[in-house]
Every structure is written in structure tokens, then in C-alpha cells.
């Protein structure tokens, strides 16, 4: 059996709460977001895992989530690699806008296409496919080799960067991935086969908060 890959979406951010498109902007976690990160960390502590390394994005909401989880599992000083390859997808001209205001400006259907389509980017931003184009190579060159060596690896990142990764791990089509929503602060524990396919997947915690 190869190692273990744990994926966690960051807890609620201030802009999630305000219904704003966030992307590469850098708001902090809300008190609820801190609670969600702590809940994810406690679930992993109860699961009994100890990590060999952690990866996170260049954005503070993911970094704080990562640190809260490591504190909970008793590894506050664990080596953590930060890389913008794991950043949330860039929403371009939508970044910082209220989602309702964007719908008024461009129309409900157009905003829905930008948010949920696989390969249509918002103006000046990235589609999910564009996000995957930076996430997938980083996963293959930096993260996957460590898992295949038998290490236990934590990745604390974002809804869309992790959707791109789950799409590959769970072998979802570009149609299926459109309906994939990842709950904030809920760890997904993957055990991989030596050929890098998924041997098992466990979701630790309550998925009812997915949005």
C-alpha cells in the first residue's frame, strides 16, 4: 500500500460570508471558518494520522486552515510548502464583486456559466480547466511522488483547486465535476495504489454543510 493523501478545503472566509467572488484576493477566515478548520483537525486527530509534509496555497485562508489542522494533530512545526499552483481559481474581473451584483450586471445565466462551466473563464480570469492546468502538473511532480513513497501528505487549499484534483482522483468527467461541491473544513482521506489510482476514500465529518 502506498501512502495517504488528505485534502481539506479552507474554512469559511470573510468574503464567503459576504457572498463575494474571492479568487486570488486574500481575505481572512471568519470565526466560523476557524471553527470549521478546528473541526477538521479534530477529525484527523481522532482518525489517528500523523503527516510527513503539508502543502498549501499562497493565500492566508488556506495557510491558516493548514496550521490549525496541524496544531490539532499535534504537529504545529511540520514542514509546510506554500505554492500558488494550489491557489483558488482566479475570478478575474469578478474578484471582489458581490455575486448578486454580478448577476444583475451580466445576467443570471452568464454568471452561472462562469461559475459552474468547465472551460468558460470569466473576463480576465480562469476556468476550472485553466485551474487544473496548474494544479495537475504540481500534483504529479511534487505531491504524488511523496504519496507513492508511502508518506502521509496534507493538502489544505481551495474549492476549485481541490475540485480539479478530485476530478482526477475520482475519475469524474467534465460534466460530473460541475456538480461537485466540497464542504469547508471537511477532510477527504485518500489511500493510493502503487499505480497512483485510488484504493479508498473516506470523508471525515459532516458533508451537510457543502455549498
TrEMBL record:
Q: Where does this protein have coiled-coil stretches?
A: none
What is the protein name stated in its UniProt record? Answer: 2,3-bisphosphoglycerate-dependent phosphoglycerate mutase
InterPro entries, alphabetically?
A: His_Pase_superF_clade-1, His_PPase_superfam, PG/BPGM_mutase_AS, Phosphogly_mut1
Q: Which SMART domains match?
A: PGAM (SM00855)
Which residues bind substrate per the record? 9-16, 22-23, 61, 88-91, 99, 115-116, 159-160
Q: Say if the entry is tagged with keyword Isomerase.
A: yes
Q: What NCBIfam families does the record tag this protein with?
A: pgm_1, PRK01295.1
Q: What assembly does the database describe for this protein?
A: Homodimer.
Family indicated by similarity: Belongs to the phosphoglycerate mutase family. BPG-dependent PGAM subfamily.
Q: Which PANTHER family match?
A: PHOSPHOGLYCERATE MUTASE
Q: Which GO terms describe its molecular function?
A: phosphoglycerate mutase activity
Functionally, this protein is described as follows:
Catalyzes the interconversion of 2-phosphoglycerate and 3-phosphoglycerate.
Q: Which organism is it from?
A: Mycoplana ramosa (Mycoplana bullata)
What the entry lists under Pfam families is as follows: His_Phos_1 (PF00300)
Q: Gene of origin?
A: gpmA
Amino acid at each position: 500500500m502506498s501512502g495517504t493523501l488528505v485534502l481539506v478545503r479552507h474554512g469559511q472566509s470573510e468574503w464567503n460570508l459576504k457572498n463575494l467572488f474571492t479568487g486570488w484576493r486574500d481575505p481572512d477566515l471568519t470565526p466560523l471558518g476557524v471553527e470549521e478548520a478546528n473541526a477538521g483537525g479534530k477529525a484527523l486527530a481522532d482518525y489517528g494520522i500523523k503527516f510527513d509534509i503539508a502543502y498549501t496555497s499562497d493565500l492566508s485562508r488556506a495557510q491558516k486552515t493548514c496550521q490549525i489542522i496541524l496544531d490539532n494533530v499535534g504537529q504545529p512545526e511540520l514542514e509546510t510548502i506554500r505554492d500558488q499552483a494550489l491557489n483558488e481559481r482566479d475570478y478575474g474581473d469578478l474578484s471582489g464583486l458581490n455575486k448578486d451584483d454580478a448577476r444583475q450586471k451580466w445576467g443570471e445565466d452568464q454568471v452561472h456559466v462562469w461559475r459552474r462551466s468547465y472551460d468558460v473563464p470569466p473576463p480576465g480570469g480562469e476556468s476550472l480547466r485553466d485551474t487544473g492546468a496548474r494544479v495537475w502538473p504540481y500534483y504529479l511532480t511534487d505531491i504524488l511522488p511523496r504519496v507513492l513513497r508511502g508518506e502521509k501528505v496534507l493538502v489544505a487549499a481551495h474549492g476549485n483547486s481541490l475540485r480539479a484534483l478530485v476530478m482526477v482522483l475520482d475519475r469524474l468527467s467534465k460534466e460530473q465535476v460541475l456538480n461537485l461541491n466540497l464542504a469547508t473544513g471537511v477532510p477527504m482521506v485518500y489511500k493510493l495504489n502503487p499505480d497512483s489510482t485510488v484504493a479508498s476514500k473516506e470523508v471525515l465529518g459532516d458533508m451537510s454543510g457543502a455549498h
